[in-house]
Amino acid sequence: MPVEGACPCCRGPLHKIGEDVAERLVVAPTTFRVLVTRRPRYGCRSCEGAIVQAPAPARIVEGGILTEALIAQLLVSKYADHVPLYRQA
């Protein structure tokens, strides 16, 4: 998003036109919670040509909901603890 909050095309003011919501699963021992990331979108009313949004946070699997901690827990349970995937809660 531009620092001054101006349209990159015409330098007019930007107005919020929506937001993207992303959900990810976070694991704590025997507890799961959903981590929600909101990224508002801003658009210019005068030129209607520019939509500005902050970049999405990096993920191991693009578009996936698993966090690094959950993937690590699954891998340790499967390969170190020899627990089949269907028995993992």
UniProtKB/TrEMBL annotation:
Residue ranges constituting the Transposase IS66 central domain according to the UniProt record: 64-89
Residue ranges of domain Transposase IS66 zinc-finger binding in the record: 6-48
Annotated Pfam families: DDE_Tnp_IS66 (PF03050), zf-IS66 (PF13005)
Domain of life: Bacteria
Transmembrane spans: none
PANTHER family xref list: BLL1576 PROTEIN (PTHR33678:SF1)
Designated name of the protein: Transposase
